[in-house]
Amino acid sequence: MENKKQNILIIGAGLCGSLLALRLGQRGYNVIVYEMRPDLRSTDISAGRSINLAFSDRGNKAMKMVGIEDKVKALCIPMNGRMLHDKEGNTFLSNYSGREYEYINSISRSELNALLLTEAEKHDNVTIHFNKRCQSVDFEKTTALFEDYNTKDEFIEDADCIIATDGAGSALRKSYFLERKFLFSFSQQWLTHGYKELSILPSENGDYKTYKNALHIWPRGDFMVIALPNLDGSFTVTLFLSYTEGEYNFNNLTTPKIVTEFFEKEFPDALELMPNLVDDFFENPTAPLGTVKCSPWHYKGNTLLMGDSAHAIVPFYGQGMNASFEDVVEFDKILDQNLGSWETIFLTYEKIRKKDTDAIADLAVDNFHEMKDHVGQAIFQEKRKIEMA
Ligand code: FAD
Questions:
Q1: 241-252 mean pLDDT
Q2: What class of enzyme is it (predicted)?
Q3: Which end of the chain has fewer CB within 10 Å, C or N?
């Protein structure tokens, strides 16, 4: 259906919502976007979870679709493989596929989000409003209730259809769940582990303190640390750890002394690069990790869930954002089919897409165990075999 006069309301201008706004703008729809946070291009806020992300070919296909591949490439740092760190500080670089030309990229969430917003706003038919939080969606009437963050005024917006790209805590999904007007299945599975972001700052002369072009992993059986490079010479470090289990866990890492002891014992080579560890540890939040599955994603032809709002996954396959970008690519292909009504479009989209997003969700949980335990064991065993040969 290519009725250019159709008004589409998008809730959430994160990675998926800003890409969707750009693509629908390119297709000629009237697009209005409401984002609850301030504009990250003019405010000093983090873009939300995880400062940087692994950006793969799946995500890059979406950038090609909207014609900004080169602009995105300038934000990317190729990571040619995983660099494993053992407790003694030995390292081993393992290519992802054995083929040296294959790599994934590290990319800044906020830079990528900012680029997508700017590209979307180049279209006169796309308008983005910030500081407007969606409270609920009336999916029968195709209207959404918003609150202005500054004035606290509430207002209602209507549209020909509403697409929610408002992430794992989606307001539309909550409305589906709470209203109980149709059979809506929903599950949310939490991991026993949470995560905390830390950092390795650049050296005094601005250089990277460890090898730049790798995804660094310190696998330790039941927990792990990873680090991805940033363009400014720093690395964003993420500690994945149980909340309650094991000798060290998030609940008992309560003092600078215990945190330092933990890193001295488990990650001594990382600690050497992180003089700011204790400040980071106590300033930065600890956040949970979960998988959201639900169905149906749409209500008639009125409303649709897309991105994390439909299928939030744990980050261990590095594919949540990439899959959310792929949502937009698949949706775009379905629009090309001129199926007639939004209802048919939404039905077709969910039919094609859900099996894939369910599969990546399960793979991501499997890869959690693989990364924190097996990757380290298998690769270090392989390394010992090579050394002995
Ligand atoms: P979000 O990025 O969550 O964006 C939702 C937007 O909606 C936000 O801007 C939010 O402010 C806004 N919003 C929310 N509620 C409302 C409301 N009520 N009204 C208005 N606006 C609202 N993926 C990868 O591909 N590679 C990785 O390496 C990777 N690493 C990750 C590491 C961690 C620690 C985590 C937690 C996730 C990681 N992910 C990764 C997953 C990735 O972050 C998500 O899949 C991706 O952000 C989903 O994009 P989205 O736009 O659907 O949702």
A1: 96
A2: oxidoreductase
A3: C
